[in-house]
Amino acid sequence: MNNSTFNKIRSELENKKYPVKRVNMGDIVHRGENVYSIGNREYVFENYVQSELDKYLGISTQEEYTLLESGGERELTNLRNWLLSRNAGKNLLVMASDKGSVIKIEKCKGDIIPPSTFFDIVEKFCDSNNHNVIEVKYNEFNPFQISAVLDKDNPKIVSIADGEDFNVGQLSFAWNLSSVDLQEEYTRLICSNGATSIERRSIKSIYNASNESIRKMIFLDSKEKELIEDRTNRYLEKSKEAMHTYASIGEVARVSRILKGNGIDDAKADELSGFKDILDRLGDQQKKYLTYDNKKRIRSNQTIWELYNLLTYITSHQVEEYKIINPQQMMQDSSAFLGNERDIKDYIDIDDVA
Questions:
Q1: DSSP assignment letter at 208
Q2: pTM for this one?
Q3: Distance separating alpha carbons of residues 351 and 183, to the nearest angstrom
Q4: Which of 306, 178, 171 is nearest to 247 (CA)?
Q5: Number of H helices, E strands in the chain
Q6: What's the mean per-residue pLDDT of the chain?
Q7: How many CB atoms sit inside 10 A of residue 127's CB?
Q8: How far apart are CA 121 and CA 173, in angstroms?
Q9: What is the Cα–Cα distance from 166 to 56, expressed in whole angstroms?
C-alpha cells in the first residue's frame, strides 16, 4: 500500500463519526424483548449484543432457557434488571449504528483512544521496525474496529502440507475504540478450501493514549520476539494435528456455538457447522447420545481442520454476508478452538450409532 492510499483511508476513518457512550450499568433498564432504556432514551440491542450483556451479568444460556420455560419473558427481564442494579458503578462502552440500534458493548478497560493515535502508532512502528502497511481493514457494520496489516519486504512463507502454504511473518495492529492491540498474523495463502484466510494472536495491548503506552507499542523486545517464534511453531503443529484428527460431535456443536455467539442465526449456524446433519441422523436418539461423555467420544465425519477452515473463511470472506460485528472476537474464538486439546482419542463412529 503506497502512502497516498494509506493517508486517504486514514483521513476517511479519522473523520468518521463514532456514536459511543460510557454508561453506568446501573443506569441500563431492560424493558422487554430487545428494548433497553439508558437515561430517558430507549435503544434496541441487537440479539448478539443482548447475549454479550448476559455474559457480563453472569446469565448462562441454560439459565435463560430455564427462566423462559418456567416464568416467561418477565422473569428473565426481572433477573436482568436486578443484576444490572447490582453492577451499578461498573461502566460499559455502548456503541450505536447510524440507525440508532446498539451494535456493540464492551467493558471499559481504559480511556477512549482516538483513531488518529492508532494510525500514529502504526506509522511509528513501521518506521522503527522496517515494516510496511499492506492493508487497512474495517467493517461497515461495525465502525468501532480498524486493523492495519504489516509485512516485511521478504515475507516468511512456510508449507506444512500439499496446498497449505502460510505467510507467518506478518503483524497487525487492531483498534477497538478503547484499546490498541499488536498481533501476530498468519495468512494461509493456498487453503484446502481454495481461499486465503487468517489467524491472529495478541502480543501486547494498551488501554490509553499516554506517551508511555505509545512507546510500549512501537518497539518489540527480545522476549516478545521469542514469544512470536514459539507461538508460530505451536500454531503450525496444531494445524498439522487438525488435518489428521476427526472432530467429535461435541466439537462440531462447539463450532456451531461459536457461530451463534458471533451473531449468526441459530438454524444457519447448525447448518453451516454440520451439527444439523448430526441432529437429523440421531433423530429420537439425541437424548441418549448427546450426553457429555458421548459427545466427546462419538466421531463425526469432519476433521478439525475442516471446521477451523469454516470459521476462518467466514472471518476473512463473509463478514458482510453474515453481518459479523466483531470479526476480531471470532478470530480469537477460532484460534481457541484450534488450540484446544482434542476430544477424539477413544472414539465411537457416528456411522455405528446412527
A1: S
A2: 0.71
A3: 41
A4: 306
A5: 14, 15
A6: 87
A7: 10
A8: 9
A9: 36
Q: Could you give the CA distance from residue 232 to residue 182 in angstroms, rounded to a whole number?
A: 15
Tens digits of residue pLDDT in 126-173: 999 989 999 998 877 667 789 999 988 788 888 888 777 888 888 999
Find out whether 299 and 348 touch, Cβ atoms under 8 Å: yes
List pLDDT tens digits, range 72-113.
888 899 999 999 999 998 989 888 876 778 888 888 877 889
Q: At which residue does the C-alpha cell 442465526 appear?
A: 265
11-15, 21-25, 65-69, 234-238: the lowest-pLDDT one: 65-69
Q: Position of cell 444439523?
A: 276
204: amino acid identity, one letter: K
With residue 348 as reference, give the H or E element that holds it: strand 348-349
Q: Indicate the residue type of 266.
A: D
Least confident stretch, 93-102, 195-204, 234-243: 195-204
As to burial, measured by CB atoms within 10 angstroms (0-12 exposed, 13-18 middle, 19+ buried), residue 237 is exposed
What CA–CA distance (Å, rounded) separates 348 from 250? Answer: 12
Whole-angstrom distance between the N-terminal and C-terminal Cα of the chain?
A: 53
Instruction: For residue 215, name the pLDDT band (cuts at 50, 70, 90).
Output: very high
DSSP for 109-164?
-SPPPPHHHHHHHHHHHHHHHT-EEEEEEEETTEEEEEEEEEE-SS--EEEEETTE
